[in-house]
Structure formats: C-alpha cells, structure tokens
Write a structure and sequence with these properties.
By secondary structure, the protein is of the alpha/beta class. The protein contains 7 helices and 14 strands. 23% of the residues lie in helices and 28% in strands.
Length: 236
C-alpha cells in the first residue's frame, strides 16, 4: 500500500490510500479539483471517501466528489450536515473495495465525529485514521499503521490566548497525549506511525517526530502535503 498526503492541517485534510488499482480517500477537506489532480484524475479507481466530520477542512471537496460518483461515507450525525453522504452504521464493519472499514467515535465539537479503522482484505494489514480529537476512547490492537493527529506541543502553546488554548486542548491532540495513548496500546504489530494535522503555529515537525519515535520505538514521520509514504508489510 501507499499513502499520499494531498492536504493536512487547518487549511485542509485529505489523504489517498492506494492498494493495487484501488484508492480510498480519507477526508476531502481540499477542493475536488486538487484531489483529482493529486490522484491523476483516476476517479474511477476511487472505492470511496471516508469523512470524519463536517468541518470544511475535512469535507470542502466532498460534494463535488459525490457528484462525480465517488461513494461518500460518514456517521449518522455527519449525514445531518452533509445529506449526500451514506451514513455508516456506527461501530459496524462494511466492505469498501479491498478494505473492510469501521468508524469509531472521537472527541470533537461536532455532533458525531469519528475516526476510521481500515483492514486490507488482501494483505491482512490494518490502518487507523484519527484526527481532530483530544484523545481516543478505546484501545486498538493489531494496528500496523497509525495515521493520527499530533496537533501541538504543550511547550509551544503557552503564548496562545487562554480561551483559544483551552479549546485546542479540548478538541485537538497534543504530542504528549498522543505519546501516552500510543504507549498504552499494544504496538507489537505497528510498522509505522504517521503524524498528521500539525498546527503551523503550535507544532514542530522535528520535535514531534523525535518525541513520538523515542517514546514508542517505532518509525515515525510527519504527514506533509505532497508526500507519498510507502506502507510495507515487512518491517523497515
């Protein structure tokens, strides 16, 4: 598999997960034209797009992709804001191309935000995608690839206005919280950790990747726009 970062951060989030000839989009928070250009206009190869919630930086291009025939999936709560998407039955698996998918609840300021678990039915690999959340409510065993928010570092947030600082803490994931979550999960099967949705003002790529890699002992990279990240079944 391969992960392509089409957009990440507050300006727009979208990731393309490739497996053989199939593509699954994770969020669509940038214009559809940019998404199509990024995937070489292979709209016919897109098995679906998984939406985490209805904020524009995660769904800006969703309606136009839907008009092109891309299946859009989200929770019942997200469907209330984006009526064109297909609501996924919460915490239940369904098939999407080469993948089995399941949403799970996260902590954010929308009605029913979620993260997504993806299992590759061809290779048996499992990926977790979680963004815009201050934490995770469950443990997740046997995850090979973590694509997960690392929005800010506590040492970089103190010059933020108090009210804004508390909102960030309430709805976004800090480097320190992420490290605690990851080390409380069984990382035996983890091959790579991919950090995403880093704040430009309150994040530091080198600090965060070193910190998470040091705490987990796993290869760690930061998602940056334009990157293509190989996801290999064999250890690095």
């Amino acid at each position: 598999m391969e992960l392509q970062v089409l957009g990440t951060g507050s300006s727009g989030n979208c990731y393309a997960l490739y497996d053989e000839q199939q593509i699954v989009l994770l969020d669509a928070g940038i214009p559809a034209k940019r998404i199509l250009r990024g995937i070489d206009h292979r709209v016919g190869d897109v098995a679906g797009c998984l939406i985490t919630h209805e904020h524009q930086d995660h769904c800006r291009g969703a309606r136009d992709l839907y008009k092109l025939g891309v299946p859009m999936l989200g929770t019942t709560g997200t469907k209330e804001a984006l009526p064109y998407i297909d609501n996924n039955r919460s915490m239940h698996q369904r098939r999407l191309g080469n993948f089995s998918i399941m949403d799970f609840p996260v902590i954010h300021d929308t009605k029913e935000p979620c993260g997504w678990l993806l299992g590759n039915t061809r290779t048996g690999e499992r990926m977790l995608y979680a963004t815009d959340t201050s934490g995770l409510l469950f443990a997740f065993p046997h995850i090979n690839y973590w694509l997960i928010e690392c929005n800010y570092a506590e040492e970089l947030i103190w010059d933020t206005a108090p009210s804004h600082r508390e909102r960030i803490r309430q709805y976004h994931m800090s480097m320190e919280t992420l490290a605690t979550i990851l080390t409380r999960n069984d990382l035996t099967d983890c091959k790579q950790i991919i950090l995403c949705h880093m704040s430009r003002e309150r994040g530091d790529l080198k600090l965060m990747t070193r910190f998470i890699a040091g705490r987990t002992g796993k290869p760690t990279v930061m998602a940056v726009e334009g990157a293509r990240i190989p996801l290999n079944a064999e250890p690095f």
